[in-house]
């Protein structure tokens, strides 16, 4: 076999890779047979934990009386931060600003102060409510306005992206405008909430089952709080019932609490918070306040942009630094800014510390950019799509390819994607028909928008762009696969299994997918940043390459043929003129003492980033897409319907089109929820009031577009050497939902005959739509 086959991830294209395979657990999901952590048979002597939560937003703790808690029926142990054997901290970035259990100061309503371990979950939860805590209240603020008004400190050093001369070019622009946009946060609302089970072992050992996207971080944190080395901690994850970024760091506290109690009591411990407690005590998508100024000409071409992205970060830094950084990385959306200045403002608030959520700041940055485009369009009386197309990044050599962070956009296909969708969705004809409809209808108004997506793929923390995989082939030809990625419903496991099956040219059912565990693949990165398939697929491919090289060398020597005469065919191997069934071939290799196991490794090439300088190549490539959405609003109530959405999305050469289509559809609906119905609300005491399904409204199946046409750009192929020339699909399609907000905006603007930008904030709840309609009546 030609050695290039081993080196080129695209070379082997027959077999299951690039084909539509069902999710490996789909049948288990719908029949209820998929095992989640709460389904694992409980160990003998299992105890249950519950959190004791603060009822103040910001206060000193003067005294804590836990005597009634400890005396409550079924309670075995009650512990506070003083009982933590190691360091009472679960911060993910080494900032030491996130105590596992608050000791002298609480900084948000719902912050854990103590933990209760009891014989039953109900007993633990009931006991936790009996604590008597005396506080001295301190000033608090729970939103961006309050943080700005009180001169709130920043949770991390802000970032600035600067290119060109915006200071001099802005005043010289033929036209200028300023504005402000509020962008709401979002609750992850997993089907499976946070949960952890810790089982004590010999000496300092402990095994933790955690619903986490980052097993290695759980391993590190548990070692940190127990003051034991990482080699004593084993973390296992088979699957999660949803992650979306919220299980990148937020599972730390539950795993740490369970591990402390397990080692103290010598019994297995489970923490599974109630939905209300989960929503109150864990982080969410960041709210943003965007202040922008843009200079442009009479055609609508942008000359300069100056914008500040202020974010509600919560009481600690968590992932707010990289989240607000990525917001700036995507504050250009798909547009070239000749002169630009972008500044982040990660503000401290007395709320739960916000964290990763699908898109990781990118959606907020992109939404601000689309507002700027919309402002220009309304100021000039033009179709926003024309302004978008006028300002798209150009092709190499055009002088319009440099991002605000000084990375060249070399793989730009956004114009082709948008042009194709514009034609297939019949955008122009439908927009004209909608304008005519709005002229003739007083109360029901329609809107349509076509918006682009350009999303950078890679962790902006360069070190995270690495992955490992462990592959075994057993004597019967069956294959065991383990890698550092975690499965949260997105189809990562089946995609990596397809890569492996394709490498050996065997049926997919010959590959056994096993739970992610730190005992097999060490030092894993979080399954995040849309990079799960890119990283782990290539690591598995590397392991397969190593084994195949050994098998080829073995066969060449045994049968005295050239390596080029050894070819892996479906479920068999051709050696010269003979063909051998794959299991028989493997059996012979075993008896020849060929090593049939390999640890694969991959690190993303080409990327580098200097945050202080605001320069570098943080992204390996970009994923593109476009969505066209049509809506109808009732101007008397603000209620609306999503009538139709057409999507064309770029996933390169798809590893699994069925999985990728599902990802695009799901991401769009989740993004639609963020921009329409999902509203987070804190009262004047700093209490989150939208902490349950009764008050927090995610989209229903009936809220999906009535007509929903989704296609993958089958002609696309990644120009970089990713696995199978595919592209990431987790986060990029989330931002396709911006077309919904823009379509609602057009419908609202029709009330004033499109003379002014409605400046519709997100989420565009019916109340906000109605208020915007009333504003437009006064234009």
UniProtKB/TrEMBL annotation:
InterPro entries xrefs: Ald_Oxase/Xan_DH_a/b, Ald_Oxase/Xan_DH_a/b_sf, Ald_Oxase/xanthine_DH-like, AldOxase/xan_DH_MoCoBD1, AldOxase/xan_DH_MoCoBD2, AldOxase/xan_DH_Mopterin-bd_sf, Xanthine_DH_Mopterin-bd_su
Region Disordered, annotated ranges: 1-27
Domain Aldehyde oxidase/xanthine dehydrogenase a/b hammerhead per the UniProt entry, residue ranges: 31-139
SMART domains (alphabetical): Ald_Xan_dh_C
Keywords: 2Fe-2S, Iron, Iron-sulfur, Metal-binding, Molybdenum, Oxidoreductase
Residue stretches spanning the membrane: none
Leader sequence residues: none
Entry-linked Pfam families: Ald_Xan_dh_C, MoCoBD_1, MoCoBD_2
Record's compositionally biased regions (Basic and acidic residues): 1-10
NCBIfam families: xanthine_xdhB
Protein name, UniProt field: Xanthine dehydrogenase molybdopterin binding subunit
Species in which this protein is naturally found: Rhizobium chutanense
Record lineage: Bacteria, Pseudomonadati, Pseudomonadota, Alphaproteobacteria, Hyphomicrobiales
């Amino acid at each position: 076999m030609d050695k290039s086959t081993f080196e080129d991830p695209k070379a082997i294209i027959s077999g299951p890779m690039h084909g539509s395979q069902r999710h490996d657990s789909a049948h288990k999901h719908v029949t209820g047979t998929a095992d989640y952590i709460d389904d694992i048979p409980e160990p003998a002597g299992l105890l249950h934990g519950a959190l004791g939560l603060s009822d103040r937003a910001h206060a000193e703790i003067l005294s804590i009386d836990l005597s009634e808690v400890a005396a409550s029926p079924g309670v075995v142990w009650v512990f506070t931060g003083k009982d933590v054997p190691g360091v009472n901290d679960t911060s993910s970035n080494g900032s030491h600003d996130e105590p596992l259990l608050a000791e002298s100061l609480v900084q948000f309503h719902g912050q854990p102060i103590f933990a209760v371990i009891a014989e039953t979950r109900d007993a633990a939860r009931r006991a936790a409510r009996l604590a008597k805590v005396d506080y001295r209240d301190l000033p608090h603020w729970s939103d961006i306005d309050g943080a700005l008004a009180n001169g709130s400190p920043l949770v991390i050093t802000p970032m600035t992206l600067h290119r060109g001369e915006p200071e001099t070019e802005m005043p010289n622009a033929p036209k200028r405008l300023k504005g402000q946009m509020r962008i709401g946060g979002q609750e992850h609302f997993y089907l499976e909430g946070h949960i952890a089970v810790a089982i004590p072992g010999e000496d300092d050992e402990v095994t933790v089952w955690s619903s986490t996207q980052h097993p290695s971080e759980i391993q590190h944190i548990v070692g940190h709080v127990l003051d034991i080395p990482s080699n004593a901690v084993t973390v296992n994850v088979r699957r999660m019932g949803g992650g979306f970024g919220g299980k990148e760091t937020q599972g730390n506290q539950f795993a740490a609490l369970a591990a402390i109690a397990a080692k103290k009591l010598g019994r297995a411990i489970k923490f599974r918070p109630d939905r209300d407690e989960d929503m109150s005590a864990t982080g969410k998508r960041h709210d943003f306040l965007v202040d922008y100024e843009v200079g442009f000409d009479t055609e609508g071409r942008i000359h300069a942009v100056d914008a500040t992205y202020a974010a509600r970060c919560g009481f600690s830094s968590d992932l707010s630094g990289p989240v607000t950084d990525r917001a700036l990385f995507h504050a250009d959306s798909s547009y070239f800014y000749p002169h630009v200045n972008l500044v982040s403002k990660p503000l401290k608030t007395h709320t739960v510390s916000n964290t990763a959520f699908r898109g990781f700041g990118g959606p907020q940055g992109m939404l601000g950019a689309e507002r700027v485009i919309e402002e220009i369009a309304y100021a000039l009386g033009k179709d926003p799509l024309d302004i978008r197309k006028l300002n798209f990044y150009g092709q190499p050599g055009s002088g319009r390819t440099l991002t605000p962070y000084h990375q060249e956009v070399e793989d730009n296909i956004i114009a082709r994607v948008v042009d194709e969708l514009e034609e297939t969705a019949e955008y122009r004809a439908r927009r004209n028909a909608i304008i005519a409809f709005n002229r003739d209808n007083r109360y029901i108004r329609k809107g349509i928008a076509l918006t682009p997506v350009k999303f950078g793929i890679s962790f902006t923390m360069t070190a995270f762009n690495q992955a490992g995989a462990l592959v075994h082939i057993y004597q019967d030809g069956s294959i065991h696969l383990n890698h550092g990625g975690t499965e949260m419903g997105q189809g990562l496991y089946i995609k990596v299994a397809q890569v492996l099956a394709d490498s050996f040219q065997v049926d997919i059912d010959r590959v056994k997918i096993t739970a992610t565990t730190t005992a097999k693949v060490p030092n894993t990165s979080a399954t995040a940043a849309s990079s799960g398939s890119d990283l782990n697929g290539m690591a598995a491919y590397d392991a397969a390459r190593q084994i195949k090289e050994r098998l080829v060398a073995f066969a060449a020597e045994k049968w005295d043929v050239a390596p080029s005469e050894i070819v892996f065919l479906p479920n068999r191997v051709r050696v010269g003129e003979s063909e051998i069934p794959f299991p028989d071939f493997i059996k012979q290799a075993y008896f020849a003492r060929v090593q049939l196991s390999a640890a694969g490794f991959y690190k993303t090439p080409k990327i580098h980033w200097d945050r202080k300088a605001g320069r570098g190549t943080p992204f390996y490539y970009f994923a593109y897409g476009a969505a066209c959405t049509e809506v109808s609003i009732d101007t008397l109530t603000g209620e609306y319907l999503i009538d139709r959405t057409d999507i064309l999305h770029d996933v390169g050469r798809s590893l699994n089109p069925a999985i990728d289509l599902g990802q695009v559809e799901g991401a769009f609906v989740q993004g639609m929820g963020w921009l329409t119905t999902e509203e987070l609300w804190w009262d004047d005491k700093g209490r989150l009031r939208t902490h349950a399904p009764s008050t927090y409204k995610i989209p229903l199946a009936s809220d999906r577009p009535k007509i929903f046409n989704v296609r993958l750009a089958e002609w696309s192929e990644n120009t970089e050497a990713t696995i199978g020339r595919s592209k990431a699909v987790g986060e990029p399609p989330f931002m396709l939902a911006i077309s919904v907000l823009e379509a609602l905006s057009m419908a609202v603007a029709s009330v004033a005959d499109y003379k002014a930008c409605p400046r519709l904030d997100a989420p565009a709840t019916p109340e906000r739509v109605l208020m915007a309609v009333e504003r437009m009546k006064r234009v």
